[in-house]
Amino acid sequence: MQRVIIHVDMDYFYAAIEEREDPSLKGKAVVVCMFSNRGESGGAVSTSNYIAREAGIRSAMPCKLARSKNPDAVFLPVRKKFYEEVSSNVMEILRSNADNEDAFEKISIDEAFLEVTESCKGDYSIAEEIGMRIKEEVRSSEKITCSVGIGPNKLISKMASSYKKPDGITVIKPEDVTDFLKPMPVKKLWGIGKVTENKLSEMGIRTVEELSGRDVMELISVFGKNKGMWLKQTASGIDENPVKERTATDQIGRMASLKNDTRNEDTIFSLLEELMDDVINKTVKRKVSFRSVTVTVIFSNFKTSTKSRTLNHAVNDRHILNENAKQMMQRFLEESDLNFRRIGVRVGNLQESTGQRSLFDF
Predict the structure, then answer these.
(1) Residue 27 — left, alpha, or beta (φ > 0 → left; ψ -120 to 50 → alpha)?
(2) In CATH, which of 3.40.50.261, 1.20.120.30, 1.10.150.20, 3.40.50.80 is domain 182-235?
(3) pLDDT tens track for 295-324
(4) Among the four 100, 167, 246, 343, which has the fewest Cβ within 10 Å?
(5) Are the beta carbons of 240 and 231 closer than 8 angstroms?
């Protein structure tokens, strides 16, 4: 059966989250920066929304230069911990749509591969339905969008997800791979950097079609055996690499918004109970135990704060999660007079469960 791989790429992830948290940012150029110790005059752009990109603002650009391109843009500091919470929620959605636990591969905070060969029985129309379901689940759960690429391997699905950004879905069947790749500039091939692009240009190779037409021995003579063969295969749309988790996922979490900003304890703890149920169910399904518990609160002023506890042993116990998470949430209520906007709970330092530990072990 022909493999069917989905690649999901979140749209301008950090900036999209900031827009979601503060609706007044909609329609404005939003730039998320990693500021240096010089404050807002230093540092580099981490990401920007599409309005900012239209002004020429790009990732890794100095913040000072970005400001000169659009002085009216809104510049915000990176909130990495918060983005990781949202990423954890998104990745659990993606993982749940893969064929199995081993058919999922997170490659960054905002993108992942999943294999759906068995789920769709090799039928690309069913795969597209899965892709649309993923988009809807992400939109419904996190109020942000993603772009989806579907193809016969990781290379093609990765390139397809960028084809109709933002919020698009592109399906490339095996018989369409050649026509999909041919007109593309070589720099669009996943894995080709500036140095390789320049070398290919010196050889008169500027499109994928031109690259695929070159003799492999010529490419080997310039780039070496491994790189030369890889270039030839990539230009032909060949990629046999499996979808496989690169490193063990070290956390499981869930975050959600309260219906209204509030300090009402019944409302807050009721939502916390729902989140804990979801987290513990996921740990059971994945057959893992945890050694840390983290609670996150986003206040009405958009400030994010977290509290964490490390346990003596790895456990998979709803009562222990409940006790620790509720104690930390109570501390948040005691320490701040602000209303709560969003809350989250996360377990980390995951290990494969080798046996159930109970409260008596502690």
Answers:
(1) left
(2) 1.10.150.20
(3) 989 888 878 788 999 998 889 999 999 999
(4) 246
(5) no
Q: How far is 11 from 135, CA to CA, in rounded Å? A: 11
Calculate Rg over the CA atoms of the chain. Answer: 23
pLDDT tens digits, 157-198: 999 999 999 999 999 999 999 999 999 999 999 999 999 999
Q: What angle do CA 166, 171, 176 make, to 5 degrees?
A: 130
CATH class of the 5-12+82-176 domain in this structure: alpha beta
Given the residues 19, 111, 128, 142, the one annotated as active site: 111
Where are the alpha helices (H) located in the chain, listed in sequence order? 13-21, 50-54, 63-69, 80-97, 117-120, 124-142, 154-161, 177-181, 194-202, 208-212, 216-223, 225-235, 265-286, 318-335
**How crowded is the C-beta side of 321, counted as CA atoms within 13 Å?**
26
Kindly report the number of other CB atoms within 10 A of residue 102's CB atom: 12
Could you tell me which of 203, 249, 211 has the C-alpha nearest to residue 230?
Answer: 211
What are the backbone angles phi and psi of residue 229, rounded to the nearest 5°?
Answer: -65, -40
Q: Which residues does 97 contact at the CB level (< 8 Å), separation at least 6? A: 6, 114, 116, 119, 130, 133, 134, 137
The answer to whether residue 115 is catalytic is: no
pTM of the full structure: 0.76
Per DSSP, the residues of 180-232 read HHTTSBGGGSTT--HHHHHHHHHTT--BHHHHHTS-HHHHHHHH-HHHHHHHH
pLDDT reading at 77 higher than 70: yes
- The pair of structure tokens assigned to 314 is 């790895």
